[in-house]
Amino acid sequence: MFTTSRPRTAEKSDCEAQLSNPRGRICCGPKEPVYDTTQRTIFALHSILLSAWPSRGGVIELEGPTAVDFTHLGLDPLNPPLRRDPDQAAEDRFCQKLLALGAKWWDSPARSSFIGEVDDLDSRAMLALDEDQAPWPTMRERVWVRVGWPSDGGLWVAEFDTNMPDIQDEENLLPDNAPWVLLARNMDEKCEIIKRIGGKYYEKLADYEGAAFLKAWEEKTDGEVGPLLKTTYS
Predict the structure, then answer these.
(1) pLDDT at residue 195 above 60?
(2) Model's pTM, two decimal places?
């Protein structure tokens, strides 16, 4: 599963931050790290994460966006934005664009980071699950999703369960050729690749009934496993 979790930051006085694993988390010693809630583009060790901060709370993250996705979002891959929009109305509009590409709407940055640790089989995270100290990943949280919007209308969606612990759909696991989508040179090619790896076509977004957050902006009022953590730009 080629994904990223939210990098963690801490005060420089605590220690020198360093990338600790392929997901790009930044660990800085014994203190609980704080999260930078103004970040937009985050460069992890092997991937990129695009974040958006909805007025309803939580954080929306698009894992592993490609140059095709950046172009679709109206972003310049050569000058990726590092900070969120200080205007909340504009930020909410960007949130909807990310959701339309298959982004996940996490209850909080901490939940995103925790599920990343579960995916990495981190011993502390697994112990927390085994001892019922944290909820297991929901299908929405664990599913791998890629979305394409073809030039002739409609949308293509590929979604698969992953090898994260507690597999829920063994008949629909992430195929080995899933990284093929990274080779698309434009959105139509991305749609064709999604089709070839087992994606499904929908004439309109309203027809979608899968596990992803594609229609969450119109439907979501609560978190997946808890409340949506409200954040403000500062």
Answers:
(1) yes
(2) 0.85
